[in-house]
Every structure is written in C-alpha cells, then in structure tokens.
Amino acid sequence: MKQLGILDAAFINLERGNTPQHIASLGIYDPSTAPGGKVRFKQVIATFERRLDNQPLFRTRLVQVPGGLDRPYWVKDERFDVEFHLRHIALPSPGDWRQLCIQVARLHSRPLDMSKPLWEAYIIEGLDRIPGLPKGSFAVMIKIHHSLVDGMGGNSIAALIHDLVPSPDHAASPESLPRLVDITPGMAELLSRATVNGIKNVAGVVSGAASNSLQLARYAAGVVKGDYPGLDMQAPKTRFNAPVSPHRVFTAAEFKLQDFKTIKDAAGVKLNDVALAVVGGALQRYLEQCGEAPDAALSAAIPINMRARRASTEDHNQVGSVFTCLHTDIADPAAQLQAIHHSSLDAQKAGSVSPLVDMLKLAGVFTPALTRPVANFWARNHLSSYLPVNVSTVVSNVAGPDQPLYCAGARLMDYYGLGVLTPGMGIFHMVFSYCGKVTVSVLADRAMLPDPEHYRDCLEDACQALALAVLPATGRQSAARRQKKPARRRV
Which residues contact 422 (CB under 8 A, 6 or more apart)? Predict the structure, then answer.
C-alpha cells in the first residue's frame, strides 16, 4: 500500500466529467518487422503482460479514505485482468486519417473507470485506407491517469510497452521482478492513518505556507529590482479560454526533426523555441482567419521536469509550469522566434526561483474533503474567466528516443501525445520527437476547434513561414520541399 503524493493527489482531486485528468499516447505500427510479418491481438496482450511484470503500479487501484479525510492510496488490485484494460477495435468506414482522429478524440473524452487500475489501451485496426501506411498497420492508443505519470508521460508510456528490438529476450528470473503483496486496508486502518497524517499535514501546511510566503515575497522583490524576470501570464482571452465541454477533437502535424534543427542553428536558438514559434504562429493564423486575432501577444504554459531542479521524491508527478510569451504581435517570424527565445530564457530563470511554478500543488496539499468541493465550485461557476492572469495554451515538449521502438515485434512508425484540458484552457499541444520526426499533436475542445484539419494546415504553414524567414535562399527551397503536406495526412 502506497499513499499518493501531493501532486499525484491533485490530479485525482481535479478529476471531473468534462475535464478528465488522464493523458494518452497514439502509436502507429508496421507489423512487417514482427515474426511472420503479422501481429495478432493475443501477441499484444502477451506483450502488455510481460511488460507489466516490471511495472507493478499499473496493477494497482485507487482506494479513497472515508470522508475524504486524507490523500488516497494505491493498493494491489487482486482482481486485475489485463484483458479488461485492452480493447480491440477497428475504424468505421472509410477508415482514413480523419476517422482515426475522430476515434481517438472520442476515446480520450471518456473518463477512466476510477474503481480499476487507472489505464486502458485500444488496439485499432482498419488503417489500410490511410495512404502511406504499410498494409496491415495498426495503432495503439494508451490512456493513463496523470496521477500515475508526470510531464514526462510521453516517455513513460513509451517505455511501458516498447522494446528496443523486434524479438527481445523474455527471460527474467522471478527474483528480479517486483512483487505486490499488500492487501486492501480496512476502514479502521485508513482512518487511523488519516488521524496521524492529519496532524503531520497541518504542521506541513503551516510550515509550507510560511516558507512559500517568504519565497514569494523574495521573488516579488527580485522582480521589482530587476533581478528576476516576471512570469508572463497576461495574454488576452481567446475562444480557447472559455469553459471546457466533455467533447474533444484531435489532430497532428508531422515535421522533419532536421528541419527544426536547421532553423534552430540558423537562428541561434533552441529546439523548444522553434516548436513554440510554430505553435504561436499557428494559433495566430487560426484566430486571424476566424476574425478573432487579439492585438496583444498570446502566451503559453510550459510543463517542466522538477527532478532536475530539486531533490527527488517518491511522488510519481514531479512537474511544474513556467509561462512564456509567444510574441504573436510580431509580424516577422524570424523576429518573433528571437523574442520567444529571450522570453523562454527569462521564463526558465523565473521558474527556478518562483514558488508559482508549483501552483498545481494547491489542489493536492489539502484533504480531498476540502479540495474537491472547491474545485467543483470553481469549475461549475467558470471562475477561471474572472482571473486577471491568463495563458493561451499549454505546450509540452518531450524528446523521445532516436532509435526505433517495437511493440509485439511491430516497429513504431509515428508517435503522438494527448494532454489534459482544464477549466478555461481548451487547447493543448504536445511536441514529441522520435527517430528523426517531430509530431505536434493537438487536443482541443470540440466547440472551440470545430475544424481541426484546418488547424493542422495552420501548423504546417507556420513552420514553412518560419523557415522562409530564417533560412538562406537555398535552405528555404529545401525546407519548402520537405514541408509539403504529407499525403497520408490528407483527407
């Protein structure tokens, strides 16, 4: 039995029907590398079972403390059945890229069963109408609750089911595998633990509040003196800052990693800056074409890995957020990229000293009995719309592996990530690099982004405009040829 950490519990407390707190991945696979050139559903099941032997957390379920008096616990699910979590489906006709995106969006919009281990996977067939895919290709979509994985969830999910070779050595000694031996605790034990933890938590909250107040005062003083940059959270409100519905859309654009690197090197910036410029350019284009482009610049929240910034803990989530300006009020893409670069550096500097980087912890530091009613009241009354601060989107950038990955012997060709929408934030971008490709995946509220295919075009156009502005003439021609829309992404 293991109690959830503060940030892990925050995602449980924030769980609502219209804003479920799970993330997801979508991988597309070529079965020709598997033994016999074909993958059967039972082979995928066997792969999950084998990999889960080394991931005991995915065999646990959530146990709430009576009355919400303490953070919940992970306990072994004695009735765990891997086949409950694996579903085998096929795309409806015509089975093209658009149908795949629609199916993924529908699956992602459904909350997980909170009484079971908090993940599920879908093996999706019927992709033969998507041009450019080898015959027999299939997709695997995995949904995992954010309380299990943090901002590096893209890599966490990838590591869950993938091997580095098509036919790995499955041998492992029983002694080398972790075991789950605990049983579900009774009410008396949970309440006893809650009493002890309640005393600790009161002391911790008082101490933490005093410490955070002092840090916030020091940070504010540093901003006034110019020692620290401020956090850019003053973006104008757009259609993506409205109350979020339960319905989702998904789309994605794919680019050559080398094209991003060429732009990065030519401009003297970082890869993340290039990604932010592409996202900012796409958002501005889309809003302009909707007749809703604001005069002021848009901004983005960027999840950051806190493991490298502080002592590691046993919490599954060790993630914070910094905020940066996207400078969409600058017409020249090259100048915009430079401004984003400097703002990103300032955001990273501010994030290293500001306690605001840990704002999400507020949803987990108090007991569920206190936090959940507040979170429900906040969402129900759309209080995010009254805040004086605002961000335009979330952009999570995860660097994946350079070498090919395999599931049940099938080679992973493309990988996409889906994030979390929150009240007042209706669009999420996941940037993921893998084997020379960069995918920019977009999850959005269906009412806010009714035409996701058009938004994908905006992403591609923004990247091409950036290359034309930054690269010399020879580089522009090369980038323009490479950035033509992939045929298999067209409907």
Answer: 14, 19, 244, 384
Q: How many CB atoms lie within 10 A of CB 116?
A: 16
> How far is 201 from 450, CA to CA, in rounded Å?
45
Interstrand relation of 248-256 and 299-305 (parallel, antiparallel or unpaired)? unpaired
C-alpha 71/C-alpha 4 separation (Å) is 6
Catalytic residue among 85, 108, 146, 341: 146
In which residue are the tokens 């066997």 written?
Answer: 46
What does the domain layout of the chain look like in residue ranges?
Answer: 227-397+421-489
To the query of whether residue 146 is one of the catalytic residues in this protein, the response is yes
> Cα 44 from chain centroid?
24
Percent of the chain predicted with pLDDT > 70: 75
Q: Closest by alpha carbon to 359, among 4, 3, 7?
A: 7
Question: 423: closest CA among 469, 363, 483, 475?
Answer: 363
Residue 489, pLDDT score: 45
Measured in degrees and rounded to the nearest 5, phi and psi for residue 314 equal -85, -5
How far, in Å, CA of 367 to CA of 62, rounded? 15
> Other CB atoms closer than 10 Å to residue 195's CB: what's the count?
11
In the three-class reduction of DSSP (H, G, I as helix; E, B as strand; rest coil), residue 175 is classed as helix
Residue 460: C-alpha distances to residues 156, 282, 397 (Å): 28, 8, 17
pLDDT at 24 over 90: yes
The class that CATH gives domain 227-397+421-489 is alpha beta
CA gap 466, 480 in Å, rounded? 10
**In this structure, what token pair is assigned to residue 135?**
């015959």
pLDDT band for 195, please (50, 70, 90 cuts): very low
CA dihedral for 276, 282, 286, 287, sign (positive or negative): positive
16 CA to centre of own chain: 17
Cβ–Cβ contacts within 10 Å for residue 176, how many?
8
The residue assigned the tokens 């972790």 is 178
Q: Is the pLDDT of residue 157 over 80?
A: no
The pLDDT tens digits of the residues spanning 223-239 come to 444 545 555 567 899 99
**Which residues have CB under 8 Å from 124's CB, separation 6+?**
89, 90, 91, 100, 103, 138, 139, 140, 141
Residue-wise pLDDT for 363-398, tens only, equals 777 888 888 888 888 777 776 766 656 899 999 998
Which neighbouring-strand residues pair with 142? 25, 121
Instruction: Give all strands of the β-sheet with 410-418 in edge-to-edge order.
Output: 86-90, 119-125, 138-145, 22-30, 410-418, 406-407
pLDDT of residue 200: 46
CB 4 within 8 A of CB 71: yes
| Crossing angle of helices 257-267 and 271-289, rounded to 10° | 100
Q: Calculate the dihedral angle through the C-alpha atoms of 163, 76, 18, 422, rounding to the nearest 10 degrees.
A: -70
291: left (phi over 0), alpha (psi -120 to 50) or beta: left
What CA–CA distance (Å, rounded) separates 118 from 124? 20
